[in-house]
Hints:
The protein is mainly beta. Helix content is 9%, strand content 42%. It has helices at residues 2-28, 392-403, and strands at residues 52-58, 60-65, 71-76, 82-88, 94-100, 103-110, 115-122, 139-148, 155-162, 187-192, 198-203, 208-213, 219-223, 228-233, 239-244, 251-257, 262-270, 280-281, 287-292, 297-302, 307-313, 324-329, 335-340, 345-352, 355-364, 408-413.
Amino acid sequence: MRDHGRIGRIAAIGAIVACGLAGVAVATTSFLQVGPSDRVTANLRHLDPYGRLTKVGNFPGGSALTPDGRFYWTVSAGYGANGVRIVDVHTGKVVQDIRLPGASGGVAIDGVNHIAYVSGEPNPDIDEYKAAEGAPGTGGDVVHVLSYSPDTGHATEQGAIPVPPPATAPPVDEFPPDVPPDHKSWPERLAVSPDGSTLLVALGLADAAAVVNTQTKQVKYLSTGSHPFGAAILPGGKTGLISNRGGSGPSTVSVVDLEAASKVKDITVGPHLSHPEEITLDPTRPRAYVPMANADMIGVIDTDKLQLAKDLDVTVPQGAGSAPLSTSVTPDGSRLLVAQSAADELSVYKIDGGVPPTLVGRIPTADYPSRSPRRPHVRQAMGTARAPCSGPRRRALASARTQGHRSPASTSTSRPR
């Protein structure tokens, strides 16, 4: 009897364990999976973006909204086919896909003359991603010029403006180094003057900026700081700003006299290697905002005095950092939007007297928002549509994220409530 009792107890325990395992199996099926279907990134962040998503190209690292707010230009600048995808803001649909040899993400739109300027990189060395033979700018170091229709949003290529490296450009940072040394301009962000007559281009690998007469295509160069990136032209059309990502000292923004094509001064905006990004001008007051990705703060520049007014801390307490990449100001000047790439959100600050001290809300986005819009009814989130993965595939995606590569991503648009 004792043996039968022991067997009965063992059977009962086995049944309980089996039921428990069955319950675990059932529960396992409800777990979220890494990939676009469950919106879980490779670093296990579960995303719930606000608004409507529109699929655009790979690694849309730059964008611009037409001044009338109708069409949104996104620049595909990752490992794959590069170019521009134009989105109808009202419908959320891509109205045109324009292939380019290569792109860094820089785009500026002249709303007066309906011209767009896109920074151009060379054709890649992978045949399937190359632009067609005879396409303008296949050698890189150019600014592509495209005219567009304000009614349909469709654009037509008009050629490219060469911006070759100036004589002062340092050798390209490569290891092992090229022999003989290679020199490149590598145009990054750019800005166009209010009347469309002048283009200011940050040349990331030349430690310089180009001032371009858009009518004659004449190019003048000036030295900036190390690895310039962001660009802006103040409302009067006479003064420009260039942010500098590198250098051995504090992070700076260079002030440019556009007529003389010369640097006036450098404004210190943050500590060493804080990585200043794009520059946004306030439409209602003399202020410029410069996000610093490695410092989790925004440099606020007084554009009348051409000096730093304040550094705004935009740290997100949860996580390792927020890494702000872009800002924008609503047309009425009441809100500053900050694209927090590491926090997957747009942080919204109330602007008071030109300095935004008050966080009023956070808008969840897709993965890695790298661009903040200029209009309140367009909220973009740059993200990656990844397939479910694990093991080596997941590690490869993590490596790609570190190197700046992206698979097809999306833009999020929403209307104010």
